[in-house]
Design goal:
Layout (H helix, E strand, L loop, with lengths): L1 H19 L8 H11 L5 H14 L4 H9 L3 H7 L5 H15 L7 H7 L2 H8 L5 H14 L4 H9 L3 H9 L5 H17 L2 H9 L3 H6 L7 H20 L1
Pfam families: Arm
Organism: Heterosigma akashiwo
Family: Belongs to the importin alpha family.
Amino acid sequence: GDGALSLLRIGSWTLSNLFDGQPRPVFDLGLAMPLLARLLQAEDAEVLSHACWALSHLCDGPAAHIKVVVEAGVCWRLVELLAHRSWRVAKPALRTVGNVVCAEDEADYTAVVIEAGAVPCLRRLVAHSNREIQKEACWTLSNIAAGTAEQIQAVLDSGALGPLVRLATSAATDPEVRSEACWVVLNAASCGSDAQVARLARAGCVPILGELLGEASMVMMALEGLERVLQVGDEAARR
């Protein structure tokens, strides 16, 4: 009933605030995680939003926290929630997925996120009307594109490249969104296989790399990417 729902809302809100505190409270994640996993199955958007924010704060912490979250098996549900009708749920779900992908750990959590079907969802969010969501979707894809050739292939196969190139080259794109879209291209050009680099070149990424030579934070990566493009082109010409 209503009483149970308001208790769930208060409980999820409390957890979300607890994990957002600085310094972080010391607690047994093994106890909190099953509760959060259960809250993620709720139907109520407010409960889902609080639960996702709680997880996003956890995954913004040490790698050990991310490990607990991933091993609890909630990545599938988080990916499902990327398509939630309310951006109040989709946004913290996206932030959590993004934090899992950029975890500094020996384990490759990106593979778990890709397996859960995140990349096609992220590709859809790249075109979202909410600028923050667009930016975070591009940021998450840029971290996936800094991975293995197989992970870069998942980004290319999702059909994300066209929309990303449009965001990176359109004057109408918000500067922060454009910057994150450019990072996807930069990382894929630096980390991709020869065939992937050739595909980036065919999709119109070379002018993007050229333009980034004027950006202090990106110039080294842009040079590296252009060098790869030239190298791949040179080898193709010799065949």
